[in-house]
Amino acid sequence: MAQSAVPEQRAAQQPVPLRVPVRDILPWAVFAAVLGLVLIYFVGAEQGATSLFSGTWVHEFTHDGRHLLGFPCH
Question: Name one Pfam family in it (predicted).
């Protein structure tokens, strides 16, 4: 009978999951959430009465992304 390419000792071992502490992930998760909210604001709400910047340059810059994501703009 043919022998296995993996020794029997290694086949019986289970991989140990890597533990990442929450305190290492939390700053990056907060950063990603804030960045996501800023992006959603600029794509979805930066125009008209809620506009933080004068002019229409932000609207024109995000216009196609606005339609792609389903936000009405005009």
Answer: CbtB
